[in-house]
Structures are given as C-alpha cells and as structure tokens.
Write a structure and sequence with these properties.
The complex is a heterodimer of chains A (about 110) and B (about 120). Chain A has no helices and eleven strands. With about 110 residues, chain A is mostly beta strands. In chain A, a hairpin with a 2-residue loop joins strand 6 (about 55-60) and strand 7. Chain B has strands at about 5, 10-15, 20-25, 30-40, 40-50, 55, 65-70, 75-80, 90-95, 105, 110-115. In chain B, strands 2, 4, 5, 6, 9, 10 and 11 form a seven-stranded mixed sheet that branches. The chains are: A mainly beta (about 110), B mainly beta (about 120). The interface of A and B includes residues 41, 97 and 103 of A.
C-alpha cells in the first residue's frame, strides 16, 4: 500500500518559471519529509527536507511547504533551470518505523529553454 | 569520500541463477538500506541494518531474497533462485544513524535483468 503518493508522473515547465511538485501521504505518524532528485543512471540525491513541526523550509531556489492537516507537501523551484530536469521523489519517515524512508513513485520534471 | 559503492552496475542472468549484489557504505555511516526500484512499485524498501544488525526485513519479497552485513563496510543482497520478475534496479543507501534528520546517501544502483 503506497503511503506516499505523487499523482503527477510528469511536469513540463519553461525555464525561469516556477515548478511545483506535489506529494500526498496517508500515514499521520510521518514526522519527517524529504525530497530527492534523480538523474538517469544515478542514485537519488538529497535535495531538501522538513520536519513536521514546521510548515516551510527554504534552501536557495528550493522551498518545501508542508500542510499537515491536508497531509500534503509541495516542492517549489524558482526560477526553474534546464539542469533541474530530473525525477523528483517525495519521501517520508517516522520514528516508529526507524526513520526508514517511504518513497513516492516520482515526478519527472522537464524544464525547457 | 567515494560515496556508497555498489557492484555490479549491471547484471544479466538467466532464470534460476543466483545473483549477489554488493554494497560498501560510506565510512562512519552505521545504517544501511537496500531499496528496489521498478516501474510498477517505485522505490521500495527491502531491508535495513543498524550497526550491522538487521532491523526490519518486512520488505523482502520472498525467501529467495536474503541480505547480510558481516561488517560495517560491506553488505550483500542475494537472490536465489532468480526470476524474471526480480528484474529491477537495486539501490543501497547509508546514513549516519536512524533519525529524521539523517539523510540517506544512495549508491548508483545495480541494474538486474533476469531472462
């Protein structure tokens, strides 16, 4: 049963515009959320995270928003660059599962010049 | 640091053969995770270790799958006998502990094709 869901398999955005990637979760015990980025033939790499006690975390062009009541988080990339084209995975963890990451299926982002 | 090292990067084998995937975690990391990526199921956690001890293997699909971590610098994932449905990319990841703030660092993956 998929506890972390990314309902958009793909997204296309023009360079310079905002990219918004969405993620929903079902397990209310999740207390830590992360975004990973993956290029072809490479492993996922960590991008940004947020704990459940916050509703926003920002790192340069990347901002993650958390809405606990809606069990929803989103990743905003502003401005989008062609090098941001990759698959983005949302992940969540909880203390009662040893903080092992549960991943969504990913959203493939294409940033066009 | 060289990061998490996985081998082989690619493996093609025939149904029924034994497959062994290897992982060297980042030095000093004491938690190690094995994930499998398929189109249908995405990234699924198979098993994870803390201080070389298996903590949760509930994601291991069947008894044909086994994983070991004989020391802090080496882990193996073995499939015996392999089946075509085992075809996937297998990722190993390590972290410096088990907490929300600890970030998993992934290897480049081992792409397995079972004919």
């Amino acid at each position: 049963d998929q506890q972390v869901k990314q309902n958009s398999p793909s997204l296309s955005v023009q360079e310079g515009r905002i990219s918004i990637l969405n993620c929903d979760y079902t397990n209310s015990m999740f207390d830590y959320f992360l975004w990973y980025k993956k290029y072809p033939a490479e492993g996922p790499t960590f991008l940004i995270s947020i704990s459940s006690i916050k509703d926003k975390n920002e790192d340069g062009r990347f901002t993650v928003f958390l809405n606990k009541s809606a069990k929803h988080l989103s990743l905003h990339i502003v401005p989008s660059q062609p090098g941001d084209s990759a698959v983005y995975f949302c992940a969540a963890s909880s203390s009662n599962s040893g903080y092992a990451l549960n991943f969504g299926k990913g959203t493939s982002l294409l940033v066009t010049p | 640091d060289a990061g998490v090292i996985q081998s082989p990067r690619h493996e093609v084998t025939e149904m029924g053969q034994e497959v062994t995937l290897r992982c060297k975690p980042i030095s000093g990391h004491n938690s190690l995770f094995w994930y499998r990526q398929t189109m249908m199921r995405g990234l699924e956690l198979l098993i994870y270790f803390n201080n070389n001890v298996p903590i949760d293997d509930s994601g291991m699909p069947e008894d044909r799958f086994s994983a070991k971590m004989p020391n802090a610098s080496f882990s193996t994932l073995k499939i015996q006998p392999s089946e075509p449905r085992d075809s996937a990319v297998y990722f190993c990841a390590s972290s410096s502990g088990l907490s929300g703030a600890n970030v998993l660092t992934f290897g480049a993956g081992s792409r397995l094709t079972v004919l």
